[in-house]
């Protein structure tokens, strides 16, 4: 995607070939900075503190983290240590585990002296595949938006509500939930996006609004609790969200607050779509409530950072002194509340049969 006309991905090899570079997402939307990751520990730190975030981008950064580790110690012990360190950074997004397994499968059979080059090539291939997956999700989602637009009066926009940031900043490029929106916008279909602020880290207000604005997509930021009201008033045509892990039977684990949007959509007859890249499928889990839910610092709830009138970025306390914050990062939306899953292979029902029909190779593994 483009930032002020300049094409960017969220992660890419540095020109000297000795590091990777990322967009530091902890600084958005007030500052735009490129951060250099020169070693595995820096990659692990970037994942842990959410300088990179979003399941697909976590997977991509994990792969490059292994590649950076192989430049230092490509022995079996070095590979095992790198994978163990990276695995501990974020527990919920299955892409992290998937990327580690993919890297180990490629590297373990090779002699140590061949691993660094092979790891670098595999990480790059993983990133290119992520871009292709998300572009295909965009194409399939575009047809859903096109069908909704065809039923509306000429010129009236398709109004989409999304939650958190499942945009190109959460992937290598295109995004998952935003890919159909970008494809529709670029095709000349009028779309307007309701952007949930997504407390407590405000990924919607900070990230989704930023990238939609830079691409020229009309949008408004809303408080998280406004979605149901807008649906009751007929002001939402569809909900599109991403997913950090989806079970074999279609339960969806996504940013905290997704479940409430799904309930409101179900109550108001608004279609609720989940954009699902196949690496985010976890066929080892049937019940969404078996997914480990990350609990983050309560300080993210009790404090908020923003830009003052003077241009300084400062943190302020929102709650009374002594009030603690509880901060589950994700929730689970049962498959029964999901209208359909939009994948790179097409659209399917959020059922075990629907998923297996599109991914028989994965379901049988």
TrEMBL record:
<comment type="function">
    <text>Catalyzes the interconversion of methylthioribose-1-phosphate (MTR-1-P) into methylthioribulose-1-phosphate (MTRu-1-P). Also catalyzes the interconversion of 5-deoxyribose 1-phosphate and 5-deoxyribulose 1-phosphate. Part of a bifunctional DHAP-shunt salvage pathway for SAM by-products.</text>
</comment>
<dbReference type="InterPro" id="IPR042529">
    <property type="entry name" value="IF_2B-like_C"/>
</dbReference>
<keyword id="KW-0486">Methionine biosynthesis</keyword>
<comment type="pathway">
    <text>Amino-acid biosynthesis; L-methionine biosynthesis via salvage pathway; L-methionine from S-methyl-5-thio-alpha-D-ribose 1-phosphate: step 1/6.</text>
</comment>
<dbReference type="GO" id="GO:0046523">
    <property type="term" value="F:S-methyl-5-thioribose-1-phosphate isomerase activity"/>
</dbReference>
<feature type="binding site">
    <location>
        <begin position="53"/>
        <end position="55"/>
    </location>
    <ligand>
        <name>substrate</name>
    </ligand>
</feature>
<keyword id="KW-0413">Isomerase</keyword>
<comment type="similarity">
    <text>Belongs to the EIF-2B alpha/beta/delta subunits family. MtnA subfamily.</text>
</comment>
<feature type="binding site">
    <location>
        <position position="203"/>
    </location>
    <ligand>
        <name>substrate</name>
    </ligand>
</feature>
<feature type="active site" description="Proton donor">
    <location>
        <position position="244"/>
    </location>
</feature>
<dbReference type="GO" id="GO:0019509">
    <property type="term" value="P:L-methionine salvage from methylthioadenosine"/>
</dbReference>
<dbReference type="InterPro" id="IPR037171">
    <property type="entry name" value="NagB/RpiA_transferase-like"/>
</dbReference>
<dbReference type="InterPro" id="IPR011559">
    <property type="entry name" value="Initiation_fac_2B_a/b/d"/>
</dbReference>
<dbReference type="InterPro" id="IPR005251">
    <property type="entry name" value="IF-M1Pi"/>
</dbReference>
<protein>
    <recommendedName>
        <fullName>Methylthioribose-1-phosphate isomerase</fullName>
        <ecNumber>5.3.1.23</ecNumber>
    </recommendedName>
</protein>
<keyword id="KW-0028">Amino-acid biosynthesis</keyword>
<dbReference type="InterPro" id="IPR000649">
    <property type="entry name" value="IF-2B-related"/>
</dbReference>
<feature type="binding site">
    <location>
        <position position="90"/>
    </location>
    <ligand>
        <name>substrate</name>
    </ligand>
</feature>
<feature type="site" description="Transition state stabilizer">
    <location>
        <position position="164"/>
    </location>
</feature>
<dbReference type="Pfam" id="PF01008">
    <property type="entry name" value="IF-2B"/>
</dbReference>
<dbReference type="InterPro" id="IPR027363">
    <property type="entry name" value="M1Pi_N"/>
</dbReference>
<feature type="binding site">
    <location>
        <begin position="254"/>
        <end position="255"/>
    </location>
    <ligand>
        <name>substrate</name>
    </ligand>
</feature>
């Amino acid at each position: 995607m483009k930032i002020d006309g300049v094409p960017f991905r969220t992660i890419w090899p540095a020109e000297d070939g000795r590091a990777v570079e990322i967009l530091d997402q902890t600084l958005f939307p007030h500052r735009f900075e490129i951060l250099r990751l020169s070693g595995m520990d820096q990659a692990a730190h970037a994942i842990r503190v959410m300088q990179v975030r979003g399941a697909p981008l976590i997977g991509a950064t994990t792969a490059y983290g292994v590649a950076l580790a192989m430049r230092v110690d490509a022995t079996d012990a070095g590979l095992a240590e790198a994978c163990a360190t990276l695995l501990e950074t974020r527990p919920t997004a299955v892409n992290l585990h998937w990327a580690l397994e993919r890297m180990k499968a490629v590297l373990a059979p090779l002699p140590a002296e061949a691993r660094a080059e092979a790891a670098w090539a595999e990480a790059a291939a993983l990133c290119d595949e992520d871009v292709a997956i998300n572009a295909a999700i965009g194409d399939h989602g575009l047809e859903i938006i096109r069908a909704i637009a065809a039923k509306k009066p000429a010129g009236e926009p398709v109004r989409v509500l999304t939650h958190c940031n499942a945009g190109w900043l959460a992937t290598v490029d295109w995004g998952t939930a935003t890919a159909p929106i970008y494809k529709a916008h670029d095709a000349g279909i009028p779309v307007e996006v309701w952007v949930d602020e997504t407390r407590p880290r405000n990924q919607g207000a900070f990230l989704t609004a930023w990238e939609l604005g830079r691409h020229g997509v009309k949008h408004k930021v809303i408080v998280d609790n406004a979605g149901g009201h807008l649906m009751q008033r007929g002001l939402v045509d569809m909900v599109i969200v991403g997913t950090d892990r989806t079970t074999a039977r279609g339960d969806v684990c996504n940013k905290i607050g997704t479940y409430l949007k799904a309930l409101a959509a179900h109550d108001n007859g608004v279609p609720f779509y989940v954009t699902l890249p196949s690496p985010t499928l976890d066929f080892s889990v049937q019940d969404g409530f078996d997914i480990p839910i990350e609990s983050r610092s309560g300080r993210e709830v009790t404090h908020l950072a923003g830009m003052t009138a003077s241009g300084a970025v400062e943190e302020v306390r929102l709650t009374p002194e002594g009030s603690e914050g509880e901060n589950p990062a994700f929730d689970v939306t049962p498959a029964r509340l999901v209208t359909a899953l939009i994948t790179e292979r097409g659209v399917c029902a959020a059922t075990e049969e629907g998923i297996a029909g599109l991914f028989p190779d994965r379901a049988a593994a």
